[in-house]
Structures are given as structure tokens and as C-alpha cells.
Write the C-alpha cells for this entry.
Amino acid sequence: MNNNKKTLTAILAPCLIINACSSIQTTPDYTFTLAVIPDTQNMTDFTRQRDQGFALDSSEIFLDQMRHIASKAESQGGEIAFVASVGDVWQHQTTNYDEDHYRRGLTAIENPHLAGNLDTHEEVFSFEIPTAAAGYEYISEAGIPFGVAPGNHDYDAIWALAAFPPNLDKPEDELELSTEDLGNLHVAGLANFRSVFGSDSDFFRDKDWYISAYNGGDNSAQLFSAGGYTFLHITLEMQAGPPMLAWAQQVIDANPGLPTIVTTHDYMNAQGERVHSPIQNLAIADPQQNGSSQALWDNFLSKNDQIFMLLCGHQLGQALRVDENDYGNLVYQILADYQERGQAGVDAGQALRENGLTWGIGDGWYRELDFDLSGDAALVHVKTYSSHYGAYSSNLQSYPDWYKEQENPELTDAQFYAADEYTIIMGDFFERFGEPQLQGFSFSNPRFQPTIGIGLD
């Protein structure tokens, strides 16, 4: 076990949002909310709509979710100061070929085990991308700065790698979820993603808070002001490798001392282990461009003391991992992925899958991270809310009955509730980043240099 691994003090407690009383604040406001949007691809999937025979329009759940988040913007009298998306915004790829990867030897093979993951559809252009863009338009119109990290579904191309053939000799009921048995999927190309979220897109062009991008917006950086600080947010593409991390380091170096949050798609599983999906390990296939989660920690996260939080999705479930960085300070790594939640479909009369599971559409669940920087210790109240059900997880009696078996069956009901609502006590935050500064607060505020070597005992 990593000797640096710390156990987080987490408590189940009601988490109160403190709403702004007016647009003109008469007292200092040391609170704000960061909204985290987990994988939404099943809601924007063109096949999970009424005109395709589905029981409801899943896209409406997505659009309602985005409208709800926008309604809580600071500009609307709410507390949301920033929105971070962990990616997988839409569902399907549009090709099974990428010229650059093929030229470097990353060619395809037929793989019957993974054939269902290789479908490409033109409806990405006619439905899925426009639906996603319409949702984020609500966020943009509300004036909320935001960043989107691309997920594997957001890439242009997907194929099964010839270098990792499937085991066709093993009986199907003995196959394990591993590259050795099932092979390995690869993805490439983000032209589709850049068409919506590129640095020259309508969302980000000329925005003063959008400060840097790599490869036209595949990776990006934003600033936002809240709670008396200027925060730096960096999005990294899935399993980002040496070129992306070199760019991210330049962003850090150009913005020293700012409290920094990193958002990426695939980083850890529901057990809090830094491992990738076994059948989509980009790093072992293409180490020139991709890297492992452990390499991300070792080479970037742990070596930059101003990074205090990482957000991720991709792997179903919830997890919180806390580690000391190289300076003895804590980094909070948070997973949330609700894409396979399908109770809304059941409510609408949608039949179950052949395996007895629901058709995942996400049910409108997303995360709210309520920062409270008013006390002796900085607090983050982590809550989980469904815009579809109009409730926080802790207020739904049926919550574990609907979702626990598929996501974290080893947990008790109380533990399952606790995984989606808890409080992080950031005891080293003020020592690292200084006291909040509310007078003349703007992007041009003095930037606080981190204090080295201070952590929780």
C-alpha cells in the first residue's frame, strides 16, 4: 500500500447551499459551487429517443439537466461559479480509421468480442453533436465559465487493435474483462470534439477566462473567480501522454500558485485504484501520445503543489482517493459516473435489457461541490443531484434500491448514500494558497505562492 495514502475524514451530513441574496453583496461571500457533469453519452444517444422506439426522449433529460445547472449560476442568483465536464458528451464515433495511427502501425483487426463497441453512425452529426451543443449553450448563456475534457466516445475514430488480438479459443463463459481475453480498443481524432469545444468555437473564442489550449482545444485551461480566489482549471484528454503533460506544465508555470483543479475522463475505478478500463488502455498501445493514470500522478499531479483536486468519470460508480503529493500536501481525486442509471426509462415503461439491467440514460444525476472557505478549515460539501427527479441522493429513499446493485453492490445502503454525499476537510488549503482576498477580486489578483511541506498529520 502507498505509504502516502491518507484516509479522508468524510461525514454524512445534510449539505446546505447558501444562495446569494442579491447581485450586490453586502457581506463577503466565501462560498461557491462547482458543478461536475459526468458522462452524458447515453442521454444524447440518438437510439435512446422516442423516434427510435425508446420509451422516452433521453435527450430531454440531458437538456433539462443543463437548464437546471444554468438556473443555479451566480448570474441567476445561485452559487455555481464553474462547470467541469468529465467527457463522453455524445455516444458514437464516425469512423473506424485514423490515418496517423495506421501510419505508425496501430492498425485494426476484426474482433467479435468487441464488435458491439465499433459501431459508427452519421447521426452523430445530425443529432448527437447538435443536442450536446444545445445543452452547453444554456451554460454559456448563463455566463458560467466551463471546461470539457474529451472522453473516449467523443473521439472521431474507434477500432480494435491488431497488436492485441482477442482470445477466440477460450469458452465465452470463461472470458475475463482483460486485454488478454478480449483485446484492446483504440480511439483517435478529435475534430468532431473541436467543432463544438475547440478553442476557436463560439463557446470559448475571445473569452478572457479561457486562457490556453493544446491542439486547438483537445486539452484546455480556464480561470474562474470564486470565494476570494482565482482558480485554475485544466482539462486533459483521455489518458494524456507526454505532449499534453508538457503543455499542461507550461500552463502551471505561467500561473504559479493558483489553486488548481484537473479534469480528465479515465483515471480510476470505483475502488479508488488508478487503473484504466481493461479493454481500452491507450497507453500500452501508443505511449508516444498516451500515458497511464499512475504516470499522470507520478509525472504531473504529485509534482505540482498547486494542484489540489482531480475530477474524472468513465468507470461506473463513485470513488474518493486522497494522496500526499511530493510536498506533503493533499490531492483529492474524485470519480463520479452515472451513465448506466436507467430508472427513468423503467418509470416510462422501457423494457429491461436481456441481461435484466436497465437501459442506462443517466437519470439526470450530476455532482455539486459546494466550497465553504469561511471557517478555520476549507470545506467541500460533495452532493449528488438529479434534475430529473428533483432531489439529492440523500433525500431519495429508493436511491440504493435503484442503483447500488449495479454500481457498488458490496456497500451497505448507508455506505452507498455516503459515497454520494460527504464533506472534505481541506486542512492545508489556507496554508497553501493564503487567505481569501475579496477586495478588488478579479483575474488580475495577486497570485498566492504555495507553502511547501504543510499537510495533515
Q: What stands out?
A: The radius of gyration is 21 Å.
